[in-house]
Design goal:
The chain contains twelve helices and eleven strands.
Length: 372
């Protein structure tokens, strides 16, 4: 059996006492073949140890994990117990949306320079119509963003971002839809929440704007903490990791701790490993392979691989609108790793695939849900 590497470095604190830097852990848990739901179901678990030059793994029955750790990895036993308890935490509901089944978040880019849809919905009326259409097609959440996150993009000024997203959010929320706002700016978050958004989706994990955590805490809003190495302008300039999956886990764990220190309840945090944000194609694939380990954060798990550039790189270099098959493959894999939410552009097609995926896993329940 491998000996545990001692837990080495603790998170550093910034001037306000918020946990700012990731702790380098020695041990991680990855549930095997988890069944997604409000409470994650699984029997086997991989115990992953950081190692040089490669990680090490032990696969065990979850029921014997604590006893095994006390006997074989006593230095890491407390950390293993902590992670195990996080795996068992119930998730959701999110703004009343239960997580008894996987949910879809539809992407609504109100930008002229989006990588994925070329500004198709930059006009206000077009954006509102598309948001309504996605909800009608089965999107449980409509995610409205006014800043392109394509590599090398430059952010619009604050007034322009507000002009793009607030009227759209107001209209869709007025229809009774569950709306999230995709932004890094605290003022946009505040205005969006006032307009009816109930979730903030921040690719910077509330690090870009020093007021962002306070806005979320004050409004008691749900928040998506996504991982990004660098900024949209810099993130694809030779991103590097010692171990992409484990490093991203550590970073998100630090972001969650910082959010909690600012008064945000862990029970209102969704985590997103940030596929495509400061990662090479290989990094993205490694993270997708190890996706279930992010359940050790004790939060609902969101995955957004839709139309990302690595899909084309692995195929024939297709442009974004022709990457649906690869996006769907990544999404269905994520569901098999227990992901709770898929962030997608192609709602109608993904909803059909999701229905088939659920039907194969539980035919009786799927048939019972079919309208008579």
């Amino acid at each position: 059996m491998p000996a545990a590497v001692p837990l080495t470095q603790t998170e550093s604190e910034d001037a306000e006492g918020a946990l700012a830097e990731p702790r380098v852990r020695s041990v991680y848990l990855r549930p095997c073949n988890p069944v997604p739901g409000e409470t994650l179901a699984f029997d086997l678990v991989d115990v992953l140890f950081r190692g040089m030059p490669a990680r090490r793994r032990v696969r065990l029955q979850h029921a014997v994990l604590a006893r095994w750790a006390e006997r074989n990895a006593p230095v890491a036993a407390d950390e293993i117990a902590h992670l195990s308890s996080r795996l068992a935490l119930p998730r959701g509901p999110i703004c009343g949306l239960t997580l008894d089944r996987p949910r879809l978040m539809g992407v609504l880019n109100v930008t002229p320079d989006s990588f994925s849809d070329g500004g198709d919905f930059a006009a206000e009326d077009d954006a509102i119509s598309h948001g309504r259409a996605m909800a009608a097609a089965g999107a449980d959440i409509v995610d409205v963003g006014g800043e392109s996150t394509r590599p090398g993009s430059r952010a619009p000024n604050e007034a322009e971002e507000m002009r793009r997203v607030i009227p759209v959010i107001h209209a869709l929320a007025g229809d009774g839809l569950l709306v999230s706002v995709d932004t890094r700016r605290a003022t946009v978050m505040e205005a969006a929440l006032a307009a009816g958004a109930r979730i903030v989706n921040d690719m910077s994990a509330l690090r870009h704007d020093p007021e962002a955590r306070a806005v979320i805490a004050r409004n008691k809003a749900w928040v998506v903490l996504a991982h990004m190495q660098g900024t949209p302008e810099t993130m694809q300039r030779e991103p590097r990791y010692d171990d992409a999956s484990l490093d991203v886990f550590d970073a998100i764990a630090a972001h969650v701790s910082a959010a909690e220190a600012a008064g945000i309840q862990r029970g209102k945090i969704i985590v997103d490993p940030g596929i495509g944000f400061g990662k090479t194609a290989r990094h993205n694939l490694e993270i997708l392979r190890d996706l279930a380990l992010f359940h050790g954060l004790g939060c609902p798990l969101l995955v957004g691989a839709s139309r990302k550039s690595f899909v084309g790189r692995l195929s024939a270099g297709e442009p974004p609108k022709q990457r649906f098959p690869g996006s769907l493959a990544a999404g269905l894999h994520a569901l098999g790793e227990g992901a709770h939410i898929l962030r997608v552009h192609d709602v109608t097609e993904t909803r059909q695939a999701l229905a088939m995926w659920r039907g194969i896993r539980d035919p009786e329940a799927a048939v019972a849900e079919v309208p008579r």
